[in-house]
Amino acid sequence: MRIPLSWLREFAAVPADATAEDVMAELVKVGLEEEDVHRPSDELTGPVVVGQVLTRVEEPQSNGKTINWCTVRVVPEGAEQTLTGDGIDPSGVQGIVCGAHNFVVGDKVVVTLPGAVLPGNFRISPRKTYGHVSAGMIASVRELGIGEDHDGILVLSTLGLDPEVGTDALDLLGLHDEAAEINVTPDRGYCFSIRGVAREYAHATGTAFTDPASPVPAPAAQGPACPARPEDTAPIYGGPGGASFAARAARGGDAARPPPPWLAARLRLAGIRSISLVVDISNYVMLELGQPLHFYDLDTLAGEIVVRRATAGETLRTLDDKVRTLDPEDLLITDDSGPIGIAGGMGGAATEVTDTTKDVLIEAAHFEEVGIGRSRRRHRLPSEASKRFERGVDRDVADIAAQRAVELLVELAGGTADTTSTDVGETPEARVVELPADFPARLIGRDFSTGEITGTLTDLGASVESTDGGFRVTVPSWRTDLETREDLTEEIIRLLGYGTIPSTLPVAPPGRGLTRLQQQRRRLVNALASAGLTEVLAYPFVSGRANATFGTPEEGADAPAVTLANPLSAEFGQLRRSLLPGLVELAKRNHSRGFRDLALFEAGTVFLPEGQLGSESIPPLGIRPDDDVLDGLDAGIPHQPYTVAALFTGHEVAASAGTTPRAWDWADAVDAVRLMAETAGVDVVVRQGTHQAFHPGRTAQVELRSGEVLGYAGELHPKLIAAQDLPARTVALELDADLLLDAAADVIVARPLSTYPPATQDVALVVPDAVVAGDVLEALREGAGDLLEEVGLFDVYAGQGIDEGHKSLAFALRFRAPDRTLTADEASAARDAAVDLAAERFGAVQR
């Protein structure tokens, strides 16, 4: 909302030297947000004056264009020229070349003299053109930045003006004014008017406020301005009452008269283009009082005006010359000919006011907020009127706004005011809110005196009545947002100042901090981040296909999912069963932008519904449900385990001089799993596994020692990689972190470092091809006993010297005792025990 300061000063005590910045600084105190400052004079400076054309000579040119060589007087005849500078004639008569032809000798025009700067940083200086030195320019409205018309220069008589030659044209056209632009939040619709902002400025500064609605007298009604009645206007979506309809009439005016400069200037500064006198008056009253208006050519109306809902199949040609098919929820203004306007949206073309209109009917109505908003979206008709109706309009100002428009029509268009008026429809009773005397203090945290409460509410325009233990507050008609005692309390502290609320730092209670589970989760995330992975957050919404692929290891297995009732996109209509679909989407987005080497991870919940989902009924408000009801509600919540997933594409490091980048592979995913297990202090088993989303031969299944499956790691399936347009050999992992952390000890005790030297032994075992190397490794670890410190597979061989269908597995074993140096015999005995157990379980034969 743009607020011209000259307009604001008519209703609020704004100091004469106050700038737009000063006004916004005051409005910020009462919760309005500053946006911008608009000063036409910032882009239009220098000598810009009223001139009178003395001579005009048409001179055809060789290029086919005809120019006018003019002399223009820019100071009153006989007066001394006070302007000086290069190109300014001391005689007060300037020679100017002009290409427009819509003026004659004697016309008064706007002249920009040398030294002036026009919008777009266009500087005026003497220049030789068409064989003359042109010392100035006769300006059009577009060149002045006050309109779009560029068909000719601005002739001041067309605006009804006859100023003295030499008058400052910036003052004449209102271009020295400035506007403060503020952002109006949806609950402060009353600030979409000069009336509302002036009241807020008075609140902020404690100065006087003059209500522009108060001095407008009601007509001495001698009958209805037009027969009208509301029909079927009850709010479909709730709200205070149905529609009301007020109308006034002005007769015998001249709608073709040009808008006066002050009116056009104010509208322009307020951000609304000047169109015609009648339209400008409608917009002017709307900006001043906040009440949208609609004007009808009274002679085109047929019979009684009825406010009703549309019927199926009805159409209306609106002012933009489009035929619109109406919806049964649309609220219409109709007469005997049918629809003549969409309520709160746009009028019909058949009743449009034109230059030939003599008698005008002014409509000032009130409509249901939600219904207007739906019609606006349905027909794509955003407007200043619908913006106000959707946020709430003062019901009590409708007839005042209509009468204000009549006064302006009589003043500016001539004619007479009709002595009739129409006021029909429902006017609901004023809203009354009970406010306990101690409630503001309990809610805000500071004491309030009775005077502070009653004074601020009275300043708002409310009527306050003392009751036993509190106040009965009658909310003013323009504050449709005040519905509860909390709303009133917020207004009290807003006007008194948020700075009056005492600041008290809370004291943290002793003995608290992160829980054990929170600490463990944080350690997992920090470990992955420290290892070089980047944490990301993906949307939890995925497609059904993604859930079916990543959400269960077996292809075709049942994968129940939570389906969203109102998804952001039909494609992503389920809650995730796995974190990997989100990581895949993020990887694809990064790849499309040139980021190829990625190591991403996410930690979050997945949604695994089992059995009951949701509840048949929701317990009523205001009553605490018993334990059985709460248990029933909890039973309908899907299982949501905390999960960690990672995805690797490209190379571990970027290519550089002297460095050959290594591509991520399945071993990196397994290493990340082991890192998380070590961080949690849990011993896990990694064995060959299968998952439909992973490569059939490069998938590790991660288990606890108890046999519970934690998750999977490895290379994604080639078909999936191709379908998702990911790089070849993309690897990933996903673990159930809750299950991992449940197996973690309360305290992780670090193993003491031995100062004694290790004893190392290597062993190569021949086993059948079907035997898994990891199982042999576990057998060696178990058989070697407590002296074994570490065991690892370092070679797999099959070929010459090995029987067909068999393979050789080479392991490195490291033994160490905590209290002595091991002998070779002790290490060999432990190795032999390990080999014996492997032979017993798998038929392993030592090479």
What can you tell me about this protein's structure?
The protein folds into 6 domains: 2-39 and 178-205, Phenylalanyl-tRNA Synthetase, Chain B, domain 1; 42-172, Nucleic acid-binding proteins (OB fold (Dihydrolipoamide Acetyltransferase, E2P), Beta Barrel); 228-425, Phenylalanyl-trna Synthetase, Chain B, domain 3 (Phenylalanyl-tRNA Synthetase, Chain B, domain 3), CATH 3.50.40.10; 432-496, 2-Layer Sandwich (Phenylalanyl-tRNA Synthetase, Chain B, domain 1), CATH 3.30.56; 516-618 and 627-742, BirA Bifunctional Protein, domain 2, CATH 3.30.930; 759-846, Alpha-Beta Plaits. The radius of gyration is 41 Å and the shape is elongated. Strand 26 (463-467) and strand 27 (470-474) form a beta hairpin. With 847 residues, the chain is α+β, with helices and mostly antiparallel strands. The strands form 11 sheets. Strands 28-31-32-36-35-34-33 form a 7-stranded mixed sheet, with helices on both faces. The mean pLDDT is 89. It is built from 22 helices and 40 strands.
